[in-house]
Write a structure and sequence with these properties.
Elements: H1 3-7, H2 27-41, E1 46-48, E2 50-52, E3 55-57, E4 62-67, E5 70-79, H3 83-102, H4 105-121, H5 123-134, H6 138-163, E6 166-167, E7 175-183, E8 186-190, H7 198-209, E9 213-217, H8 223-235, E10 243-245, H9 250-259, E11 265-269, H10 272-283, E12 294-298, E13 303-307, H11 313-325, E14 335-341, H12 345-357, H13 377-393, E15 395-399, E16 415-418, H14 425-428, E17 435-441, H15 444-452, E18 456-457, E19 459-463, H16 467-476, E20 481-484, E21 501-502, E22 505-506, E23 520-528
Parallel strand pairs: 1-5, 8-9, 8-11, 9-10, 11-12, 13-14, 13-19, 14-17, 16-17, 19-20
Antiparallel strand pairs: 2-3, 4-5, 6-7, 7-23, 12-22, 15-16, 18-21
Helix pairs in contact: 2-5, 3-9, 4-6, 4-8, 5-6, 6-7, 11-12
Length: 547
């Protein structure tokens, strides 16, 4: 970028704007996206390589990613990184770190903003691959790429905001005290499959913007779209070794990345089981590792919406259905528990049954699809196990049927169950699929108690027209992101910084003003300005030693 564009970022967030959604109501946009879907399919199966120090490499072992809507279609044939590849990537990242650390926040921001422009130009291509590789319906895939662009734009500006030294209160006359943020070193990024563009892009961008070098390991199910993201960063001007890309199996390269003594930080989004294992592994400090490894994890939720007696069901029911069944319930923010006050209980269930029956189940590539496939056969079988449990131990409110789609892809129809037990597995365990469990509450206090009775604390919602209940929810509903009278999914960068606590994860909210600080350490430099004597006016050569 030119110097003029650099100057526009001197006020970092003044010109940040969220990326607009594609308007699929326009025929031209529908046509453009249909063409993108056809175009990307001509390259299937596409080879995905390892990238270390700017060089691409294939392996004899491959990992195949399938189209969840059509499991006969291989989308990509990916290299499978080994522990040796991790060691090489960490070495390359270590080598590139001193120069990248010394690169000014403005220069780093300009590369990231160039990546945002390239991603914007290839928006339909990336979205189309997310449709075919992750099974995301049109609007979900489009939103995924838009969020990735938002992360690039937002964190570039955040790097400028945090990059300038801050002069602290000069308590002593003649003393300057400056607070500065410096990067940590090498960051391992382990991304999920459900937001295969946005989340890996966001975690990687934050690390890079802060001055760290990165090793990105994508989810095994979605290596192709993550590979294209890595290539966009390099095309934007990222120096070799600053971002290394390692597709592979979690138990092989992921495990080595977490335990590597030269990796300063791990950033992970995924399951609670894996996240807790990463935290335990990273806590071990082997001989020769001169730092405590930092970990940021986002591990999911068991999210609830409360519907009180004053709720407007005309708006509440569509919000609930989208929150529960959008992207087939495969969002960590999805609603899987519905708590309804008894005065409105029967009417709410009748409306939900009717609305769920009208949802369009189909291939993700079809523009009318509202509920597409789940990610793979393992996920499908696990969800079907919970559905069978619900049929045996709960009352079925709605049980759909995918028909002939079952022989083509990994499809699971939306199901709604009624339970009278807050401790039932349907009410306690994260299912990560299109399964919603409803329970009755006698009053709003009881509803809050049920909502908070979970080890997670990610998202939650309240549908109410009673101001006192909305005020109570603000204070007493224990979640990281609380949504009042709207859907509980779809957090937007800069508007709704996203993240929870308890067993939903550790770390500051993504897309918010504190997120980048996790990738840095703060230092204070104090200088006595009342000098005694004068040094020679002729200074020697600069010290070019690496830090």
């Amino acid at each position: 970028m030119n110097q003029e564009n650099t100057k526009t970022l001197e006020s970092p967030l003044s010109d940040f704007r969220n990326e607009p959604q594609t308007d699929f109501s326009l025929e031209v946009e529908r046509s453009n996206f249909s063409n993108a879907l056809k175009s990307v399919a001509t390259h299937f199966p596409q080879d995905v390589s390892i990238i270390i120090d700017g060089r691409e490499e294939m392996t004899s072992e491959r990992i195949e990613s399938l189209d969840p809507s059509d499991f006969r279609q291989i989308v990509a044939s990916s290299a499978a990184a080994t522990s040796d590849h991790v060691d090489k990537a960490v070495k390359a990242a270590r080598k590139a770190y001193p120069e990248w650390r010394r690169t000014s926040p403005g220069e780093r921001a300009n590369i990231i903003l160039r990546a945002a422009e390239l991603m914007r130009e290839r928006k339909h291509e990336l979205s189309a691959i997310a449709v075919r590789e992750a099974g995301k319906p049109w609007r979900e895939a489009d939103a995924d790429v838009e969020e990735a662009i938002d992360f690039l734009e937002f964190y570039a500006r955040e790097a400028l905001r945090l990059g300038a030294p801050r002069r602290l209160q000069p308590w002593l006359l003649g003393e300057h005290n400056d607070l500065v943020y410096t990067p940590l070193g090498v960051v391992g990024v382990i991304g999920p499959w459900n937001f295969p563009v946005a989340i890996p892009t966001g975690m990687t961008t934050a690390a890079l913007a802060a001055g760290n070098t990165v090793i990105l390991k994508p989810a095994e199910q979605t290596p192709l779209v993550a590979w294209l993201v890595a290539r966009i960063f390099h095309e934007a001007g990222l120096p070799d070794g600053v971002l290394n890309f390692l597709p592979g199996r979690g138990e092989v390269c992921g495990e080595r990345l977490v335990r590597h003594p030269d990796v300063n930080m791990i950033v992970f989004t995924g399951s609670r089981e894996v996240g807790l294992r990463i935290i335990r592994s990273a806590a071990e400090t082997p001989e020769g590792q001169h730092f405590v490894k930092r970990v940021v994890t986002e591990m999911g939720g068991k999210n609830a919406i409360i519907v009180d007696s004053s709720a407007d069901l005309d708006s509440a029911v569509p919000d609930i259905l989208y929150s529960a069944f959008g992207f087939s319930g495969q969002k960590c923010s999805a609603c899987s528990r519905l708590i309804v006050l008894e005065d409105l209980y029967k009417e709410c269930l009748d409306r939900l049954r009717e609305g769920a029956a009208a949802l369009k189940i189909g291939r993700a590539s079809e523009p009318s699809t509202q509920v597409g496939p789940v990610i793979d056969g393992e996920a499908r079988d696990k969800i079907l196990g919970y559905i069978e449990l619900g049929r045996k131990e709960a009352r079925t409110i709605h049980g759909g049927d995918v028909g002939g789609l079952a022989s083509e892809g990994f499809f699971v129809a939306p199901h709604i169950f009624e339970s009278n037990r807050g401790d039932h597995p349907l009410m306690r365990e994260e299912i990560f699929g299109p399964v919603l469990t409803v329970i009755k509450a006698g009053n709003f206090s009881e509803a809050l108690d049920i909502a908070n009775d979970t080890p997670y604390a990610l998202t939650g919602g309240v549908q109410s027209r009673t101001p006192s209940n909305l005020r109570r929810a603000r204070q007493e509903f224990e979640v990281g992101n609380l949504y009042l009278n709207r859907t509980i999914t779809g957090a937007i960068v800069g508007r709704q910084p996203f993240g929870g606590y308890r067993l939903s994860g550790i770390g500051s909210k993504a897309g918010g003003p504190d997120y980048l600080k996790q990738f840095m350490v703060s230092r204070v430099v104090s200088e006595n300005m009342m000098r005694h004597g004068m040094a020679s006016l002729v200074e020697g050569p600069p010290d070019n030693r690496e830090d």
